[in-house]
Amino acid sequence: MSTTPTTTSDQTAHAAPAAAGSASLAEHHPAWLPDAAFAPVGRRAIAVGPDGGALVATVVAEARRATERFGGSVVVTGSPTGDGPAGTTGPELVLTTDASAGLPPEGFRVSRAAGVTRVVAADDAGLLYGWFDVVRRGEAAFAADLAPTTHAPRTSLRMLDHWDNIDVHPVMGQVERGYAGGSIFYEAGRLRDDLSRVHEYARLLAATGVNHVSVNNVNVHRTEATLLTDRLGDVVRLAEVFRPWGIRVHLSVSFAAPMTLGGLPTSDPLDAAVQDWWVQAARRVYAAVPDFGGFVVKADSEGQPGPFAYGRDHADGANLLARALAPFGGVVHWRAFVYNHTQDWRDRSTDRARAAYDHFAPLDGRFDDNVVVQVKHGPLDFQVREAFSPVLVAMPRTRVALELQVTQEYTGHQKHVYLLPEEWAEILSWRPWGEAGGTLADVVTGHGPGGREGGIVAVSNVGDDRFWTGHPFAQANLYGFGRLAWDPTLTPEQLVDEWTALTFPDADPRVAEVVRDLLLGSRRTYEDYTAPLGVCFMVGPGHYGPGVDFYEYSAWGTYHFADRDGIGVDRTVATGTGFAGQYPQPWASVYESLDTCPDELLLFFHHVPYSHVLHDGRTVVQHVYDTHFDGAARTEEMAARWRDVEGLVDGDLYERVRLLLAEQVRSAAEWRDQLTTYFYRHSGVPDTHGRRIY
Ligand code: GCW
Questions:
Q1: Ligand 1 neighbour 551 (Cβ under 6 A)
Q2: Do 534 and 600 touch, CB atoms closer than 8 A?
Q3: Domain ranges of the chain
Q4: Would you state the pLDDT for residue 407?
Q5: Cα 346 to ligand 1 centroid, rounded to whole Å
């Protein structure tokens, strides 16, 4: 949104890094890989082999680091049998690669029998993931026998996108929508000299299964555009850091690069000189970074340049870049976040929710095989509650990726506890064709009707903050993303338990209980005290805090249409914008009808009177009162609950969470009071419980 200087309503200053005493601490938090999490493996005699590529060396180094710390031993074996050199005592953990074992790519098999735990991996990446699987199991990996189980990622494309800028942007800062300090890659206009923090980040990501990372903002500004050319050396250095962790590096590029970097008079995708410019650019990149992943492109979106300027469409634009990358195996991630951001609120015919489908669905079948159309989970923009994007299931002949957002842009800026996997689990398990059909996870991982794999992508939430993510609990979101991209069927409960066991390995059992209590249900709590029933964008400047009418008359879209009689957006086919008709059945009918539309999405699809009765028998306005008073009260309980672990966790971590919970309590009360007051003043209907409304 930063490239549209004429439209300023959304250009609100980026949030300051979370407070709380990080500056004086040289050391940063180990997140989910503290040394103590390696004690169970580190005490064992380990055999790793056969020796080979870079990823095997990584596993060997990991095993050495753990055993040196905890007294075990490592032998590097020459053959896949796992036998150590003569004279060594038998290993208790054997990790081998065996290409003939019939395992899926990146996969591995774990078993334990006769006192030996074995990991047999399909390839070197599988060996790395198998290693971290054993770490995650802890002592359980060395206790009872384990029947062999095979583990493999559901998709080969598990990606994090960074919205990091090299130069500090005057409005958006170093990391656009970043709430955890500056970039871990760039500082003061250049790539950092010391990339040790990036190395640790790569290790953390590898432990979750992430295998692709894009290293610059999709809003590509002048300096960042040159990563493709003059600053290619920076990409080389970043790729060197990520490579030993099985992670391929991608770049966001500007569609106008042939003009801005190449001096050509046009960026028309059908122009031969433009095509050649991209071919040469790709060639240079691959000469420097042979395992480069590809380009991420935000085109004709929020002011970024794109093919529309030449009367071409998104398939023309995406295929231009795809053809330059194809000889090297590169992929274009072409984002579908395309809508009119210069609307007039008086115009009732434009519905932002419709836009991506209207632009992209007709292009199904026109994209090259190495184009992935990257679609946000909802038709608007990472709201707490919106319907799923119908684009995700409208293009069976196209590779479609799901884009999630780990950074908490609309979900509390990493100041509020918000367990995103609670939201993602719903998204991934959504059944677009009803109970009989597959899930959304199936579709994007290549197991849907079209059988095309697009993968799972998310916007990262890390920065140079001591805790990586501002709120220490926001680490669980990053962890959860990687694990869900690997296995979309994992539950929020499983993820929280995994994350807590790794992050607080030696802690008093009360810590795990409290962390569980705070994280589980946190998404519902946040939803309860913020925008109700699927109404969207009631946020204030910078997308933090209440701003009930902040967007209502803005150029970015209109989202609730509240008046004295009612509220909500009529997106039905019968009387509204027709958006509901973009869904396959049964959802088109389910959303169209007031009787069947789920309450939580009521105001997303319908404009109703405040007196409208929900399925639970309450009116809309009473629901707003109840959820807001309850949700805000729950934040007070959360803050109180945290006090139970004082002295049981690291003091800095305790204090950071304590301060942020205090802010969450304050902010939730503000949301509660503004929302209840707004609904009361518009409807004139009092709260049946007589609670305080202003
Ligand atoms: O969510 C919105 C953000 C913009 C972002 C844009 C996008 C990078 O407010 O800051 O720009 O989405 O996804 O491109």
A1: no
A2: yes
A3: 35-151, 158-500
A4: 98
A5: 24
Taking all residues of the chain, what is their mean pLDDT, rounded to a whole number? Answer: 94
**Identical fold between 35-151 and 158-500:** no
SS3 297: strand
Q: Which of 373, 337, 363, 377 is nearest to 453 (CA)?
A: 373
Q: Report whether residue 458 contacts ligand 1, using a CB cutoff of 6 Å.
A: no
What is the residue with the minimal CA distance to atom 13 of ligand 1?
337
Ligand 1 atom at minimal distance to the Cα of residue 403: 13
| Dist. CA 253–CA 299, nearest whole Å | 10
User: Is residue 164 lining ligand 1, measured as CB closer than 6 Å?
Assistant: no
Q: 403: Cβ below 6 Å to ligand 1?
A: no
CATH topology of domain 35-151: Chitobiase; domain 2 (3.30.379)
User: Which pLDDT tens digit goes with each residue over 294-339?
Assistant: 999 999 999 999 999 999 999 999 999 999 999 999 999 999 999 9
Cα 162 from chain centroid (whole Å) = 10
> What pTM value is reported for the model?
0.95
Torsion of CA 29, 33, 39, 41, to 10 degrees: -160
For the domain covering 158-500, report its CATH number. Answer: 3.20.20.80
Specify whether the CB–CB gap between 404 and 355 falls below 8 A.
no
Closest atom of ligand 1 to CA, residue 410:
1
Q: Spell out the residues 6+ positions from residue 43 whose beta carbon is closer than 8 angstroms to its own.
A: 67, 70, 71, 72
- pLDDT tens digits along 66-104: 999 999 999 998 754 444 444 446 899 999 999 999 999
Residue 291 Cα to ligand 1 middle (Å): 28
Strands 108-113 and 116-121: antiparallel
DSSP state letter for 546: B
Per residue in 568-617, pLDDT tens? 999 999 999 999 999 999 999 999 999 999 999 999 999 999 999 999 99
pLDDT at position 616, please? 95
- 176 pocket-lining for ligand 1 (C-beta < 6 Å): yes
